[in-house]
């Protein structure tokens, strides 16, 4: 098993940053690595329950991920399970993501903690994907 942790600071209030990580319409604006869009989803991390998203790249390849929102604690954190689907739509190994928000002197800090990934390679791949997604979020919040 492997874990990853990313931290970013944003020049917005904790409440505004929390909206970006929990509200479905806002999530869609930065969800998925650069070059991807989300043609199908039920992204809404403002409540507990199931979620999924289908990310699509420029060549039309689709990647489905789903899980269950395990906790929502406005404006501090959201937690959800995460599992990729294969070509037959079978869900694979489950990991867990927590997005935590805290106040800073100049705005808010986001800590992305993705735990229980299969191995170091999975952690490296997810680090690339999350880093790319967070660049999109940074552009929206500045």
From TrEMBL:
CDD domains associated with the record: SRPBCC_CalC_Aha1-like
Top-level taxon: Bacteria
TM stretches of this protein: none
Database matches in InterPro entries: ASHA1/2-like_C, START-like_dom_sf
Limits of the Activator of Hsp90 ATPase homologue 1/2-like C-terminal domain: 12-140
Family note: Belongs to the AHA1 family.
Name of this protein: SRPBCC domain-containing protein
Species of provenance: Ruegeria atlantica
Source organism phylogeny: Bacteria, Pseudomonadati, Pseudomonadota, Alphaproteobacteria, Rhodobacterales
């Amino acid at each position: 098993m492997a874990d990853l942790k990313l931290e970013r600071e944003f020049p917005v209030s904790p409440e505004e940053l929390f909206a970006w990580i929990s509200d479905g319409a806002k999530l869609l604006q930065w969800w998925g690595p650069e070059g991807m869009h989300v043609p199908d989803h039920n992204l809404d991390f403002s409540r507990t329950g199931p979620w999924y998203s289908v990310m699509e790249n420029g060549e039309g390849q689709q990647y489905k991920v789903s899980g269950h929102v395990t906790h929502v604690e406005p404006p501090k954190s959201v937690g959800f399970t995460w599992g990729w689907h294969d070509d037959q739509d079978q869900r694979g190994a489950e990991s867990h993501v927590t997005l935590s928000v805290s106040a800073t002197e100049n705005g808010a800090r986001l800590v992305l903690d993705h735990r229980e990934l299969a191995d170091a390679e999975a952690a490296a791949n997810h680090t690339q994907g999350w880093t790319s997604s967070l660049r999109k979020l940074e552009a929206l919040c500045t």
